[in-house]
Amino acid sequence: MSIPDFQSMMLPFLQILADGRERFRKEVAEDLADKLKLTEEQRNLRRENGVYVFTNSLSLSEMYLFKADLLEKPQKGSLRITESGQALLQKNLTASTFNF
User: Fold this and answer.
1) In a domain, 96, yes or no
2) Residue 48 covered by a domain
3) What CATH number corresponds to the domain at position 77?
4) 46: which DSSP letter?
5) I need a labelling partner for 14 at 20 to 30 A (CA). Which of 34, 46, 64, 73 fits?
6) Global pTM?
7) How many domains does the chain have?
């Protein structure tokens, strides 16, 4: 399995936060990598410029979810799903139908 692009990470990203708890970004990243069944090699894969592929996709997903008001940042380094994010998850979307 290859590393999913940022769009493909958005739904599992929200699903990890579905319990409504405030969680640190590092914890979310680890849980997301586990949910996506990424190997250690995939988690640590870098582009030629040194940027981690997984971390870069995670950051883009986070940015778009935040801009769409599906994710909030209660304090530095922490994340929590918003009411809008919870409502979206209630629609039982799949990766192919996830659209906001």
Assistant:
1) no
2) yes
3) 1.10.10
4) B
5) 46
6) 0.88
7) 1
